[in-house]
Amino acid sequence: MKTKMVSYTLETLPELTEAQLANLEALAARPDSEIDFSDIPELTEEQWKTAVRGSFYRPMKQQITARVDADVLAWLKSQGKGYQSRINAILRREMLTALRAMSAK
Domain range spanning residue 79? Predict the structure, then answer.
């Protein structure tokens, strides 16, 4: 069975029910000492030293017009939907390779 994707923005979020509000109030009233961290242990200082900020960041897309050789475009399109995403992935791979090469110098 196919499921429908539902998405919300801050403006379109449904109102919380009375039960949901009561549950949130009860959780907020509990002291921190009652929180069970057994399945999510706190990070150590060593782990924080190697932490990477923004690893889940999705860069903003910017619309451009680019001229590409017809055979290159045909090849990209022949691989199915998403040829623009493939163009972006190819460019990103080359950018990262160049950046790594520059930082290795």
Answer: 70-105
Distance CA 69, CA 40 (A): 51
Q: What is the pLDDT of residues 13-65, one digit of tens each?
A: 889 999 999 999 999 999 989 988 889 888 889 998 988 877 787 888 899 99
Identify which of 88, 62, 86 has the alpha carbon closest to the alpha carbon of residue 74: 86
Tokens 């897309």 belong to which residue?
A: 61
- For residues 57 and 90, what is the distance between their CA atoms, to the nearest angstrom? 19
Query: Do residues 87 and 80 make contact, with C-beta atoms less than 8 angstroms apart?
Result: no
Is residue 84, in this structure, part of any structural domain at all?
yes
Count of the separate structural domains present in the chain: 1
Residue 103 lies in a domain: yes
**For the chain, first and last CA: distance in Å?**
54
**Whole-structure pTM value:** 0.47
Per the domain annotation, does 10 fall within a domain? no
> What residue spans of 1-105 are helical by DSSP H?
18-29, 45-49, 70-78, 83-104
